[in-house]
# Entry
Amino acid sequence: MTELDRVVKPKTKRAKRFLQNREPKLIENVKTAMIVKGGNTNETVTQALKDIYALKKPYAVMYKKKNITRPFEDQTSLEFFSKKSDCSLFLFGSHNKKRPNNLVFGSLFDYHTLDMIELGIEKFVSLHSIKNSKCPEGTKPMLIFAGDVFETDGDYRRLKSLFIDFFRGPTVPSVRLAGLEHVIHFTALDGKIFMRSYKVLLKKSGCRTPRIELEEMGPSLDFVLRRTHLASDDLYKRALKQPKALKPKKKKNISKDTFGTTYGRIHMQKQDLSKLKTRKMKGLKRRRGEKHSDETQNFSPKKAKVD
# Structure
């Protein structure tokens, strides 16, 4: 039995509350990310980790000390840190001659590595280099993905899912218009991924609906896809499984289209229209002379046979 699998019995009420908070829930907490520096990093990687941490706050934990580990060879140290800090996402930064300016985005399931995708930084503009106003900490961003490969290629589909989990923020029932002030745009083109961050400006338009402008606030990153370590289909399906209590109950004869419009189907018994009572209108009543005229028009005398 490893140290991670060891069962710990609480001795105090505080420890009991701590362990209860770590137990599985029907509605899980917001996914927290841990940001880890490798044994060898340069200024570009260090600043990129700080800027992504600034976008992710307050749902992120940053380890400032260097950690000599290689995620694609051994994940035990990352799994240990994830259980210690209760994080289900991680970002690992490193730099060497073979793979310069290297970032590894990863997700964990039950404190075990699920997916890992390695990206190389080709161009980087930091958050502080762009002299524009910034969004407040904890702003929920709007995510936009451009590029057919995010839907057609398997590795890019997993990368898109990983980016959504990393940057989506908390789940909220409603958002006011003024709260929509941060946009993160991902573009996949010619084997590269371009990440841009914008602040939404609401300008006066002369009517009730404001005019929208996007102002780049940083960071700006150009990635190239390197190595991937993806979970098997069975494990990935198990990680996506929802408890039965959260699944909506099916309602008979009710359906929804792609736009969310609800349609209902009504089943009625067969009606005898001969017994259907309609409203008697004055204009539909026959007059006295109409009955006689109808009979004369329908009557046609037969020709007499002549011998």
Residues 298-307 have pLDDT under 50 and may be disordered. Residues 30-242 form a domain with the Rossmann fold fold (CATH 3.40.50.10480). Helices lie at 13-22, 43-56, 76-85, 149-152, 154-167, 233-240, 288-298. The CA atoms of residues 255 and 263 lie 5 Å apart.
